[in-house]
């Protein structure tokens, strides 16, 4: 009997729904399979995006830290893969990828929070705000850059940075730490700056993370650089993990006071920047920094049941590969080289690492838009 089971197994594995097989034969995408329902145990979500981070970047981190030393990614309880192409290009940019990850809709490269026909689409963070959840953003670039901007902004061109900053003021997001002071401090047509408008709405606006030491709850915006913050290997220090820890403290206290959940989006922005430069030393530094921030988030999940951590990427940058330093594998150690295929983005699939409540609900190979849809379902935002 056992022999027959093994003979049948390949057949069983290859069985597909009739609609999927027909769609495949016609060259169409198979219909989306809705397999999960709202998970009441997921109350909070931490959504971490390593901009430009591919599987090879994580592998490089593991190699640089030594395989005997576990990195935070190794603690993941479930893993999936996502495809990243945009609506008009097999290789996405951050605007289109951020829109897909934030809203569940694909759009054209260079567009932000809108469909290819310019129709605005609501992000999961905007839905969370509307439902009464407390929300936050932490980034190492400017708060109105493409990836964070996709969680609240709507622009046909992602580099219209002052209008995106204006849309942040109207977003209702409670906490934001990052750069971009120049875009929030410039005077608009009404004679006021976005900073003045934020303060009028009850936000504390700070220019260093240390000023948040005494802040435990409420609304706060930290504008810590004119544009983006320094690179990890050029003096950024421990900003990202400390900013994540502070944001989680404020959001969790807000959520407790409001009897609501929270959502925090974190971007490791500079992984992309240094990957465009094919700078291995800088990539390792950025990955180590992002790894420390992921560890902070995982420790928070351990202490706060009902929290889901999702770590993924918008696209891979650099075409990084890690070949052996020598083709003679009879040697005990041949070294590992870092070889780049591009100074741009690539079309490879991206890993998704899941940890905490509901981690088992997201599996397989999917579109980046499917990931967003499933996360919104788990949070009850669909």
Query: What percentage of the residues does DSSP assign to strands (E)?
Result: 15-25%
Contiguous low-pLDDT stretches (5 residues minimum) are 1-40
End-to-end distance: 45 Å
SSE topology string = HHEHEHHEHHEHHEEHEHHEEEEEEEH
How would you describe the shape?
globular
Word description of this protein:
This protein has helices spanning 2-14, 18-25, 55-65, 94-103, 124-131, 146-149, 161-169, 181-185, 194-200, 239-258, 270-276, 280-303, 368-378; strands at 44-50, 78-83, 134-142, 175-179, 204-206, 220-223, 262-268, 307-312, 316-317, 320-321, 339-340, 345-346, 350-356, 365-367. The chain has 382 residues and is α/β, with parallel strands linked by helices. The chain has a single domain, classed as Alkaline Phosphatase, subunit A (3-Layer(aba) Sandwich). The strands form 3 sheets. The chain has a 10-stranded mixed beta sheet with strand order 5-6-4-3-7-1-8-13-2-14, sandwiched between helices. A two-stranded antiparallel sheet has the order 9-12. The protein has a two-stranded antiparallel ribbon with strand order 10-11. Helix 3 crosses helix 12 (280-303) and helix 10 (239-258) packs parallel to helix 12. Residues 1-40 have low confidence and may be disordered.
């Amino acid at each position: 009997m056992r022999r027959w089971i093994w003979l049948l197994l390949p057949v069983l594995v290859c069985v597909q729904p009739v609609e999927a097989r027909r769609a495949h034969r016609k060259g169409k995408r198979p219909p989306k399979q809705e397999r999960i329902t709202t998970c009441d145990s997921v109350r909070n979500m931490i959504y971490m995006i390593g901009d430009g981070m591919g599987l090879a970047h994580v592998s490089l981190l593991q190699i640089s830290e030594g395989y005997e030393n576990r990195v935070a990614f190794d603690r993941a309880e479930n893993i999936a893969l996502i495809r990243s192409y945009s609506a008009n290009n097999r290789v996405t940019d951050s605007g289109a990828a951020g829109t897909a990850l934030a809203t569940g809709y694909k759009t054209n490269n260079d567009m932000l929070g809108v469909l290819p026909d310019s129709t605005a689409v609501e992000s999961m963070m905007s839905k969370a705000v509307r439902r009464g959840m407390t929300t936050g953003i932490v980034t190492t670039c400017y708060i109105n850059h493409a990836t964070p901007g996709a969680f609240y902004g709507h622009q046909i061109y992602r580099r219209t940075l002052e209008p995106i900053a204006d849309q942040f003021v109207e977003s209702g997001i409670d906490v934001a730490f990052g750069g971009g002071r120049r875009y929030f401090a410039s005077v608009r047509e009404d004679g006021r700056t976005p900073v003045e408008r934020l303060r009028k709405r009850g936000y504390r606006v700070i220019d260093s993370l240390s000023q948040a030491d005494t802040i435990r709850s409420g609304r706060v915006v930290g504008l810590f650089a004119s544009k983006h913050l320094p690179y990890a290997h050029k003096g950024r220090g421990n900003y990202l993990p400390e900013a994540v820890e502070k944001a989680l403290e404020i959001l969790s206290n807000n959520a407790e006071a409001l009897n609501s959940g929270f959502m925090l989006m974190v971007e490791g922005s500079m992984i992309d920047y240094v990957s465009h430069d094919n700078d291995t030393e800088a990539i390792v530094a950025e990955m180590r920094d992002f790894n420390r921030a992921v560890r902070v988030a995982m420790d928070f999940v351990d202490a706060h049941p009902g929290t889901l951590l999702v770590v993924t990427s918008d696209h891979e940058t650099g075409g990084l590969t890690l070949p052996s330093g020598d083709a003679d594998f009879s040697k005990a150690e041949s070294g590992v080289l870092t070889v780049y295929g591009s100074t741009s983005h690539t079309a490879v699939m991206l890993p998704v690492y899941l940890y905490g409540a509901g981690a088992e609900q997201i599996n397989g190979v999917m579109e980046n838009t499917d990931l967003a849809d499933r996360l919104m379902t788990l949070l009850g935002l669909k």
